[in-house]
Amino acid sequence: MSAATKIEAILYLKGKPLSIGEIAEYAACDRITAEEGIIELIDEYARRDSALEVVETPNGYSLQLRSDFHELVQTLIPVELGLGALRTLAAIALNGPMLQSDLINLRGSGAYQHVQELVELGFVKKRRNSDSRSYSLQVTPKFHQYFQIEQLPQPFSSSQQQRQLELKLESAAESE
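Below the sequence we write its predicted structure tokens.
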């Protein structure tokens, strides 16, 4: 077994960036052999038509999926949202577009973190509102695609209906 093959297995099994020193220790070889093995792996993956690549990060070397496949990851791996973020998303979906300040009044200050998470996941679009200092929030096409919702119901006419939906969402989140 070559040093490069052993290093490839180590990078795969550890699943996180490793320094040359760590790689050499796990591979039971010296640093020069580890460096040569990494260079060989980088070269091999660059020549292959592979979904994987070996890259140098600030934390060390890592075996990872090429960036061309990140959209596929978003499609295939389900997103896990906490109950609070799910409720915040429901509020934006049902009332959107809405001002972030209105959302905070409705959901509390924890919604700031939920909005940040939902924007990073691509479910919510956030843009500066020209009429106020607050941001305008609305769901994205990814939200509709991910949750397989073509049309959202009209905003609630009473707080009792909204509470019923929250209970349904809570029940659905607990059963998953």
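The beta strands are 52-57, 60-65, 98-99, 124-128, 135-139.
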